[in-house]
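Note to self: keep these together.
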Amino acid sequence: MPTPQPTSQLTSQEAYSAPASFRKLENLHILFWLVKDISWCMIWRPLGLLMVVPTLGIALVIAWRTRANTSERAHNLAIVFWITANSYWMTSEFFNFDAVQVLPHVTSKQLALVPFLIGLSILAYYYLVQKPRETSDSPAAAV
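Structure:
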């Protein structure tokens, strides 16, 4: 399967594109993610837990393959942390430790905030620091 070769900086005239085989992997990722979340909703514990592996695994592959493009890397890393948080939260509910107090006013389920906030921090850094730098460094910004 060919790896997409995005540029590290995109101007307003360029667009990220991925080979069809890579898009198929992304679409398969969505399927696994939906099956995982449906399993969570329906309390199908074995299937939900099983779906964590391909959902998170493909998210990691996608993040790795898009690492050369700062925007794609940031968004795909945020997705990795989102799935991590989501999977932890699901597991805490499946095994009934979601309401366990781990700190004053903090339950085990709320520990899912850690990876959620890591993902949010990655996106905040991208939009507040990295993207403005890319925009000011691009030839289109000089026009």
